[in-house]
Structure formats: C-alpha cells, structure tokens
Design brief:
Helices cover about 70% and strands about 0% of the residues. It is mainly alpha-helical and about 180 residues long.
C-alpha cells in the first residue's frame, strides 16, 4: 500500500470516528429530499451522513451543464448511496475488517457477501449488499427511477463509457465518492 492510500485510509478512519453533519448542511439536505427520504437519511450513521454531504458538495462542482431534473436525481442518489448500510449498522471494527478483507482476500469477501448477514461475515454482507438494499429503500421512499438505479449501481462499473445519461451521472457520483 502506497503512502497516499495510507493517508486516505487514515482520514477515512478518523472521519468514521468524528465526522457529523453541520446544521447548515442538514438544511441543504432537507431541501433536496422528500420527508420519507429525509427519514432514511437520518437513519444513517452521522459519519455516513457527513460523508454523503461531502459527496454532494463534490458532485455539485462536477455537474455543471446537467439539466435540473438529472442534477436533482444525482444529488438525491449521492445523499442516499450508502443508506443500505443502515439496515445492519457497522461498527468501526467492521469497517476495518471490510477494508482489510477486500485488500487481502477480495474473492472470499465477494463469496461471504452473498450469505445471510449474521456471524463474523456480517460486515462483508453489508459491504456487498448495501447498494441493493439502499436502492430498495430509496424506491419505497419515492426516489426517482434514475436515483434508485444510481444508488444500486454506485459500486459497479458503468456499462459503457459512451453510455447514456445514467452512466454519465454514475461516473460523476463515483468520482466524487472516491475523492473523499
């Protein structure tokens, strides 16, 4: 692991321990989300809320020229992309296990991630399944089809580099998520 990855992971660890959304940021969130979506957002751990807000702020700087509806759908997806993790909340040690497991044993993590979310492998199931769970939750909360698809696909590769608007938005969201 190179020095920049160590710094990145160290910052992630500290953010998971100490980050929380600011009151002004929560006002922006409530302007973007409907009441049911806001309830989902509030179910997320405070550090995941803060992370999602940082993703939105980065997305805003990368989404110039988008139509108003597409940009709104992208921002909703950015805010709720990790909401599926609230189904089985993770502790900091679970997160460390996921990072180490994906780095050292990625195939095993994928296999364990398709099991029932119990036992010592529960963290791997959350890591692998949270995107699908989050998409289902967002759909029930009235998110647009595009937002739901972006949430479901936020850990996947775009289907094609010259694809449509969904792939373009997915690339913007993934880029913002990976910068943080």
């Amino acid at each position: 692991m190179n020095a920049s990855r160590i710094v990145y992971r160290s910052r992630q660890f500290l953010d998971a321990l100490f980050s929380a959304p600011m009151a002004d940021d929560l006002g922006m969130v409530s302007d973007l989300l409907n009441p049911a979506q806001m309830t989902l957002f509030r179910q997320m751990h405070r550090s995941e809320q803060a992370h999602s807000i940082r993703v939105v702020q980065t997305v805003l700087s990368k989404s110039e020229g988008l139509g108003k509806t597409d940009q709104h759908d992208l921002l909703v997806a950015a805010l709720l992309h990790d909401v599926g993790k609230s189904r089985y909340p993770l502790q900091i040690w679970d997160r460390i296990l996921i990072v180490l497991g994906k780095r050292l044993f990625p195939g095993a993590v994928r296999r364990l991630g398709n099991r029932e979310p119990r036992g010592w492998w529960r963290a791997f199931v959350v890591a692998e399944q949270h995107a699908n769970w989050g998409a289902e939750m967002a759909a029930r909360a009235g998110a647009s089809r595009l937002s739901v698809n972006l949430i479901r696909r936020h850990q996947d590769s775009p289907s094609s580099r010259d694809g449509g608007i969904e792939d373009r938005l997915l690339l913007i969201m993934q880029s913002a998520d990976q910068e943080l």
